[in-house]
Amino acid sequence: MNWAATALHRLERAGYRSGAARREVVDLLAAEPCAVTALEIDRRLDSVGRASVYRTLDQLDRLHLVQRVEIGGDAAGYERIDPDQHHHHLICEECGRLTPFVSEVLEKAIERISREADFEVTAHDVVLRGACSTCAGDA
Amino acid sequence: MNWAATALHRLERAGYRSGAARREVVDLLAAEPCAVTALEIDRRLDSVGRASVYRTLDQLDRLHLVQRVEIGGDAAGYERIDPDQHHHHLICEECGRLTPFVSEVLEKAIERISREADFEVTAHDVVLRGACSTCAGDA
DNA sequence: ATCTGTGCAAATAGTTTGCATCCTC
DNA sequence: GAGGATGCAAACTATTTGCACAGAT
C-alpha cells in the first residue's frame, strides 16, 4: 500500500471525514519525496484554501504521517514519513538548497541514544548545514 | 578566554562598533548554556529594544558564535557555540521541555558523513523528539 | 565630525482563527 | 438532516525594516 492510501485510511480511522481539500494535499505530499513548504502547497493548489493546507498538515503531523522539517529561515517544510524513504537533510547556507541523504551509521547512533537516554524518542531530525558543491566552488 | 570575551572580540574584528545593547545580549547568552528565544531575551532585557536583539542574534549567527536551534513550534531558540559545551537536544512533545545531551558516537557519525558527502559541512543540528521521563509516565 | 548602533513604531510574512457555507455520512 | 470540512478574510505572532537620534571612533 502506498503512502497516500495509508494516510487517507489512517485519517479515516482517526475519525476525520473525507474532503476534497485534504485529499489534494495528501496527493501532493505523496508525489513529493522531500520537504515542501505550506505556502508552496497553497500556491500549487488553487482550489484549496490556505487554512485547509495548514489544517491538513497539522492533522497529518499529529498522526505522524508527515514530519515537520525546520528549514533554516522563515517557513517550515513538511514531508511524508515513509520508512522506505527515511532520510535527513543537508542545507546549503549560500543558496538554501535542500539535499536529502541517508546514513546507516547515523541511524544506529540515534537508536543507541534513544535506548540509553531516559527519554522515549519517537522521531528524530538531523540537519547538516554548510556549502553545497556548487556554492563551495565560489569560495 | 570565555565565550563572551571571544564573541565581543570577534565582533570587533568583523568591523562592528561596540554598543550597549549588543553587549547586554552577549552577556545574557554567555550565561545561558542552552537555547533561549529572541522574545525571551527581549523580555529579560528592558533596556534593549527588540530589534537590537534580533540584529545581534543575526550578527552572532553569521559569525558562527551562536547557533539557531529549531524548537518545534513558533519561535526559534539561540544558544552560544562553545566547543566545550557542544550538545544536541531532546524535545518533549508533551511539555515542550528542552533537554541537552552529548553523544560521542553521534559526533563520529556526523564527521563521517561530512567527509563522505560532496558537501562542506560547517554546522550540524540534531533534534530528537518524543516524551520525557515525566510525561512518558502519564501514558 | 562622521558614521554606526539603537529604540521605537510601522511593515511583513507565516500561521491561526471565526464564521458562513458546502459536503460527507 | 446533523455535524464535520472548507474557503475567505480577519486576527495573531514572530521577525524585519525605516527612521531619527544617541553614542563610538
Topology:
Two copies of one chain form a homodimer.
Chain A: H1 3-13, H2 20-31, E1 36-37, H3 38-44, H4 50-62, E2 66-69, E3 77-80, E4 88-92, E5 98-101, H5 104-116, E6 119-132, H6 133-136
Parallel strand pairs in A: 4-6
Antiparallel strand pairs in A: 1-3, 2-3, 4-5
The structure holds a DNA duplex (25 and 25 nucleotides).
* Largest sheet, spatial ordering of strands of chain A: 1-3-2
Q: Largest interface, and how many residues on either side?
A: A-B, 35 and 35 residues
First-residue to last-residue Cα separation of chain A: 46 Å
Rounded to an integer in angstroms, the radius of gyration calculated over CA atoms of chain A is 17 Å
Fraction of residues in β-strands of chain A? 15-25%
Order of helices and strands of chain A: HHEHHEEEEHEH
Multimeric organization: homodimer
Can you tell me the CATH architecture of the largest domain in chain A? Orthogonal Bundle
Low-confidence stretches of chain A: none
Question: Mind summarizing the main beta sheet of chain A?
Answer: 3 strands, antiparallel
- The secondary-structure class of chain A comes to alpha+beta
Mean pLDDT of chain A: 92
Count of structural domains of chain A: 2
The CATH topology annotation of the largest domain in chain A reads as Arc Repressor Mutant, subunit A
**CATH domain class of the largest domain in chain A:** Mainly Alpha
Instruction: Estimate percent helicity of chain A.
Output: 40-55%
Shape of chain A: globular
SS field, number of helical segments of chain A: 6
Q: Tell me how many strands of chain A there are.
A: 6
